Amino acid sequence: MTFGQLLLTIGLPTFVGAILIVPAWLVPRVRDISGLAGSALGVALGMALVVAFMAEAGVPDLPPAQKWHMLPIIACGIVILCPVVAIMDGSGEIGRWLISIAAGAIIGWLAVFPNMDILGRILLGVWVGVSFMVLSWVSHHRRGITVTLSLTIVFAALAILCFHSHFITLTLINGALAATAGVGFVSALVAEVWTLDKEGKRRSIAIGWGGAFAAASLVPLTCFCGWAYTIGDVDWIHWALVGAAPTMLGLGELPGLHHRHGLGSSFVRVSMVCIPVALGLILVFTGVSGQEEPEGSHTNIEMMEYGY
Amino acid sequence: MCIHSCRFGRYLVVAALMGSGLVAAFSQESKPAAKVEAFQLDPVHCMALFRVHHQGAGQFWGRFNDVTGTVLYPRDDSVAPEFDVKVAVNSIDTGTTKLDRTLMGPDFFNAVEFNTLSFKSTGAERIGERRWKVMGDLVMLGKKQPVVAEVEVTGVRGNPVVAKAGWEAVVELKRSDFDMNWGIDNGALGDDVRIVIGLEGESGPPAKR
Any idea what the CATH number is for the domain that residue B114 is in? Predict the structure, then answer.
């Protein structure tokens, strides 16, 4: 992997994400436009996946030649739908449930990775739906820095899992998603410190339903894709632990905890996300033997045993 | 005496004629082209090696150990060999398990979705004594593309019942033709791939096989 390749596959999507997020979250007049701030992170994440995929694997065929090539096609759909979902932000519980069910159903229907039977697709759909319910709820109560930092950590951990699964393109895609979420985190932090909102308060902007929709869709999608193509020592439990980590943010909104605000509470909430992430990574690293294997594969060993 | 000698002479002529007829008959039977036999490939003695340029520097070699299929071929080389060969992607062997897994991954051979590569002859042209240019379709990553293999018949050995035959084929292709594009643009791995396939098959009664 060369520096130029990293620059193209991770740097370019991050730059595109920055162009979308920074004005929408930091320029006061722009961020007050309805639905713009709430869709910026979502559109940036979707674009990051599409740009990173195209930098690595080119333009996908329609219908896709390989099942994992559905990822950028679904991401295009997310980019298009994000502003719509962001505008629906504040439409109440009915809107939230509708988006949750529709997102789960559409993604569960479209994302058919290898070895995924009907139960797998239902699980993916439910995962997307539940993730949206949690993240849209959190986005109403929590600062941008909490959610974006959590997403940065989760996507970075997914990149590590993909690397251990020998899936180079998905490693770089998750790297691009982590970097884009990182741009969101930095923008939210800057907004928290230096900018004032309409009410004259210093606070970072929420990721909005658009951001929640993209994150709730992309984390389970990349998890399932990585799991379906794993050739190595990464098991389903590792993917599940890391992929389900963003929903831990919901625990911070339970009665008794939700009234806590400030940077300290953000740190605690992010730490709750880090627990399953760290557990998943520790299990992967301890599960790998760590031995270099310069000898031939098992096929050769079997042939030697047979005396050929 | 004369009558007897004349009769004897006639017998001799008839016997000579019959003998020459038999000789002619036998010699005619050995001349026609040998029949085309089905050689079942022996996976232990078959392999497919591939070579690709790594980072613009060295030529990197790997191999597939599980090669199966059938070759239709007459022992006297009167007709071109017809290949129907399958290669198991998960038998890839570079000598390093980590690299094997990367090559089996979706960025390269995508063994989860496409577990075999296959080649089927569509035509052939003789280029020399026991040397053929064999045209055929190679299916890789679910995509079928025509390729040309230069084939040398490396040997035929056996008895009238069973025989062994060997072939060596060299195929040059561009992996981008099969949508295997990873690393081409940034120069990490070359586009041109040379495949050298060593095959050995055995013909004979089905029970033996």
Answer: 2.40.128.110
**3-state secondary structure string across chain B:** CHHHHHHHHHHHHHHHHHHHHHHHHHHHHHCCCCCEEEEEECHHHCEEEEEEEECCCEEEEEEECCEEEEEEEECCCCCCCEEEEEEEHHHEECCCHHHHHHHHCCCCCCCCCCCEEEEEEEEEEEEECCEEEEEEEEEECCEEEEEEEEEEEEEEEECCCCEEEEEEEEEEEEHHHHCCCCCCCCCCEEEEEEEEEEEEEEECCCCCC
pLDDT given for residue A175 in this prediction: 95
Q: Which run of H or E residues covers position A153?
A: helix A144-164
Name which of B130, B194, B127 is nearest B167 in CA terms.
B130
> Is A231's CB within 8 Å of B111's CB?
yes
The predicted pLDDT at position B24 comes to 45
B35/B4: higher pLDDT? B35
Taking the Cβ of residue B144 and every Cβ of chain A, the question of whether any pair is shorter than 8 Å is answered with: no
Question: What's the average model confidence in pLDDT over B36-45?
Answer: 92
The answer for A 150-189 residues in CB contact with B (under 8 A) is 165-170
Is B125 among the domain residues?
yes
Q: Cβ contact (<8 Å) for A231 and B107?
A: no
Q: In the prediction, which pLDDT does A307 show?
A: 35
Domain extent for B7: 1-32
Q: Residue B56 — pLDDT band, cuts 50, 70, 90? A: confident
d(CA B71, CA B67): 12
Are residues B187 and A165, on separate chains, in Cβ contact within 8 Å?
no
Report pLDDT digits (tens) over A12-57: 999 998 999 888 888 877 777 777 888 889 999 999 999 999 988 8
Based on the fold, state whether residues B40 and B24 are members of the same structural domain: no
How far apart CA B120 and CA B82 sit, in angstroms, is: 8
Once rounded to an integer, what is the mean pLDDT over residues A154-181?
Answer: 94
* pTM as predicted: 0.83
C-alpha count within 13 angstroms, C-beta hemisphere, residue A270: 20
**Burial of A286 by CB count in 10 Å (0-12 exposed, 13-18 middle, 19+ buried)?**
exposed
Q: How far apart are CA A208 and CA A188, in angstroms?
A: 12
Q: Do B171 and B71 share a structural domain?
A: yes
Same domain, B41 and B28: no
Residues B76 and B168 in one domain: yes
Instruction: Give the C-alpha separation, B11 to B8, whole Å.
Output: 5
Number of domains within chain B: 2
What band does A219 get if pLDDT is binned at 50, 70 and 90?
very high
ipTM value greater than 0.90? no
* Residue for token pair 């198991």: B88
Residue A64: the pLDDT is: 87
Would the CB atoms of A300 and B65 count as touching at under 8 Å? yes
